[in-house]
Design a protein that fits this description.
heterodimer; A: 404 residues; alpha/beta; 7-stranded mixed β-sheet; 6-stranded parallel β-sheet; globular; B: 370 residues; UDP N-Acetylglucosamine Acyltransferase, domain 1; 9-stranded mixed β-sheet
């Protein structure tokens, strides 16, 4: 018998994140490194533990090795209690056969037994591809106060961008009367953040019904939520204020990392009252040599900097040799920028070597054809030869030979 | 491979008087070092990396910060069902822990209840990365009863009871001098040894019964003729922290890349308690050269030849040169510091000037406000 947990969180972490290209070739999107020492999943996991949620199921499917290893016992987030904590839930074989998770709702459906053993009143559904700090306990309190069956967190977005999101149209009391998925003419600017609180008895029933519905895609946004709305269940929008960013694309991932360097953006990772926890590598402090210049950047433990680093985020154990220049870029753990190399507006994945005098990416002001400008991305464990040139917006997944 | 036939004993609470300022409210083992470590991290990580699974930490007084740092030993992989980390403070009577011999005698049950054949013993005031497996292989090869670890070089100044060895061509100890008058290079004891557990117990019991209580004199010096005592030379980076200026210099030596690679080797990492700090943030206009900087700092001023620990703040217009600045110390704007060791949680307000000198760095104590 497990002690009752009032709230169980389910974190959908099975997505491939194909828009991140080479960055998610070998790992699931929630395991993508972020912010100099974190992985994306640190944000929802830390939010859970800071919100007092003790039971978190992480649903994995695509390339789970790195993610499983990273989550480990959950100790890094204090989610390693005796009868609760974080559990990695992968698809499994059952008496009647084996299924992959065929949709977000199906993934939860297949793990009803995990949720049931805590006999929760509420279930929070989260996704592993957003950067934000949020107190879920406030949203759950709102859910209780409204006596709701389902509460959806929304954030106010600029009207011009509203057509990129799922928009929740609400009555003055906050109850939802209509969903519009990526509307051409949005009626409001309440964009869904993909964070749902359900009363478990209601959700449980809808998951089972949905599973038996022919032609359903077993998706929360497409099936469960519209069905609940048409059945007249009590659905509310919960307004979130603060920093929230979907990091599902190269551009948004890059921007969100750069946001950490902007003192005007409300995403303070030094805030003692809402820490973002992560699994910390065992490495010494970083060293900045006499030939280095470092400005407006985040530098992590284990780095060795002799070149120039500007407006960049460097993960642990990155080496920037003398005469190398790193600007407006993200360099992931263990990568080496050799002498004289220039890396601008780029993301360099883990353990890659950028050879001497190689040029990666370019500044937008230095390029004429602005349509072909973008962030250059270099995959992990690659060797970019000396003097090689990688164009802006390129995505590199193979070694590049040295150029004479 | 984990788990071998060696158990570890660490003296965390010796020689505090040598750096009395920093050890005012902590044990030697809890002295901060190198941006994110405490001195005990080095012997503890060395033992853990050498496959030693059972480690007793001896401590006598002022051990709150040490216990807080070590916790269950999780960070060193020593939080285990089978063996792991054992904190060994005295029972009510601290006089039992007045010297090495009585201390070891008072943990006799710990030795009796162990099954390991060998005991590795180390102090905390030497910073190094050493492999006990190698010492053990040498010990077996020599058929030694005791293997003492030594370093060649000039005797560190102010060392307590410096012990100097002479060896025959096979490395067997043929002379032991304690407190000798030596000016040149010699082979001095690093306060680390390997010994058979049962032999150690026997020697301690014998010394206690005769009331001969000086470990170096009454075991090493008294017995080297009767027993096979061999030396093991350690030739890596291994400063002994015997004064404030040694402490300062040892920190500064970490600016040397080869020394860092020797001390923080990837295959034998130095573990420490983690504290989820964000990466260090460099502001616009910051200028940092030749410095070792831990996570969680925010630097807006100028930093030159410094070691900054976790969570240090350097304000705009401030210049900090040749300093060791410990955890969470906040230095305001337009201040100027040169040759200063600043302890934890100190606040240095705007427009302050503090100057020491290479041979005599100024020390600012924990939680002060300047």
């Amino acid at each position: 018998m497990y002690p009752k947990q009032e709230v169980v969180a389910m974190l959908l972490a099975g997505g491939q994140g194909s828009r991140l290209g080479v960055l998610t070739q070998k790992l699931a999107k929630p395991a993508v490194p972020f912010g100099g020492k974190y992985r994306i999943i640190d944000f929802p996991l830390s939010n859970c533990v800071n919100s007092g949620i003790e039971a978190v199921g992480v649903l994995t499917q695509y390339q789970p090795l790195v993610l499983n290893e990273y989550i480990g016992s959950g100790q890094a987030w204090d989610l390693d209690s005796m009868n609760s904590g974080v559990r990695v839930l992968s698809p499994y074989q059952q008496v009647k056969g084996a299924d992959w998770y065929s949709g977000t709702a199906n993934a939860i459906y297949q793990n009803i037994n995990y949720i049931d053993r805590y006999n929760p009143d509420y279930v929070v559904i989260l996704s592993g591809d957003h950067i934000y700090k949020m107190d879920y306990s406030k949203m759950i309190a709102f859910h209780k106060k409204k006596n709701a069956d389902c509460t959806i967190a929304v954030i106010d977005v600029p009207l011009a961008e509203a057509s990129r999101f799922g928009i929740m149209n609400t009555n003055p009391d906050g109850s939802i009367y209509e969903f519009e998925e990526k509307p051409k003419q949005p009626k409001s600017t309440n964009a869904s953040m993909g964070i749902y609180v359900f009363s478990w008895n209601k959700l449980r029933k809808y998951l089972i019904d949905d599973e038996e519905t022919e032609g359903s895609s077993h998706d929360f946004g497409k099936d469960i939520l519209p069905k609940m709305l048409s059945d007249g269940q009590r659905m509310f929008a919960y307004q979130f204020q603060g920093y929230w960013k979907d990091v599902g694309t190269i551009d948004s991932l890059w921007e969100s990392n750069m946001d950490l360097l902007d003192p005007n953006i409300p995403l303070d990772l030094n805030d003692e009252s809402w820490k973002i926890y992560s699994s910390n590598p065992v490495v010494p402090p970083h060293y900045v040599s006499s030939t280095a210049t470092v400005q407006n950047s985040l530098i992590s433990d284990g780095c060795d900097i002799s070149g120039s680093v500007d407006f960049s985020v460097l993960f642990n154990n990155v080496t920037v040799k003398a005469g190398a220049v790193v600007q407006d870029s993200i360099i992931m753990p263990g990568s080496v920028i050799e002498e004289g190399a220039v890396v601008q507006y780029a993301i360099v994945s883990e353990n890659t070597v950028i050879g001497k005098n190689a040029v990666i990416g370019a500044r937008p002001e230095d390029i004429e054809d602005k349509d072909n400008w973008g962030i250059a991305v270099i995959g992990d464990n690659l060797k970019i030869g000396a003097n090689a040139k990688v164009a802006p917006k390129a995505m590199i997944s193979k070694d590049i030979e040295e150029v004479e | 491979m984990r788990g071998n036939n060696i158990m570890g004993i660490i003296f965390s609470n010796l020689h505090e008087d040598l750096i009395s300022e920093i050890t005012d409210r902590r044990t030697m083992g809890a002295v901060p070092f190198g941006g994110r470590y405490r001195l005990i991290d080095f012997p503890l990580s060395n033992m853990a990396n050498s496959g030693i699974n059972k480690i007793g930490v001896l401590t006598k007084t002022n051990y709150q910060s040490l216990i807080d740092h070590l916790g269950t030993g999780k960070a060193w992989g020593l939080s285990k069902k089978r063996n792991g980390l054992f904190m060994l403070p005295p029972f009510a009577n601290t006089s039992e822990y007045s010297n090495r011999m009585t201390t070891l005698n008072s943990i006799m049950p710990f030795f009796k209840n162990s099954t390991e054949e060998y005991v590795a013993i180390s102090d905390c005031d030497t910073v190094c990365n050493i492999d006990y497996q190698k010492i053990c292989s040498k010990h077996l090869e020599n058929g030694a009863d005791i293997t003492v670890v030594y370093k060649r070089g000039h005797l560190p100044s102010k060392l307590h009871d410096p012990t100097v060895f002479s060896f025959d061509s096979k490395g067997k100890v043929i002379d032991v001098l304690i407190n000798p008058n030596i000016t040149g290079s010699c082979s001095y004891y690093m306060n680390m040894l390997l010994i058979k557990r049962e032999l150690l117990m026997e020697l301690i019991t014998k010394c206690i019964s005769k009331n001969t209580l000086n470990f170096k004199r009454d075991i090493i010096q008294a017995e080297y003729k009767n027993l096979n005592v061999y030396g093991y030379e350690f030739d890596g980076f291994a400063p002994m922290i015997t004064s404030m200026s040694d402490y300062f210099n040892a920190n500064m030596q970490l600016m040397n890349r080869e020394i860092r690679q020797d001390l923080f080797r990837g295959d034998r990492p130095i573990y420490t308690k983690v504290r989820d700090d964000m990466p260090t943030k460099y502001g616009l206009g910051s200028k940092v050269t030749n410095s070792l900087i831990a996570n969680g700092c925010i630097i807006e001023g100028e930093v030159e030849n410094c070691v900054l620990f976790k969570g240090v703040r350097i304000g705009k217009g401030t210049k900090v040169s040749n300093c060791v600045i410990m955890q969470d110390t906040k230095i305001g704007a337009d201040s100027n510091l040169n040759y200063v060791i600043v302890d934890k949680d100190v606040t240095i307000k705007n427009e302050r000037t503090l100057m020491g000198f290479l041979s005599y760095p100024v020390y600012i104590s924990k939680e002060s406000v300047v």
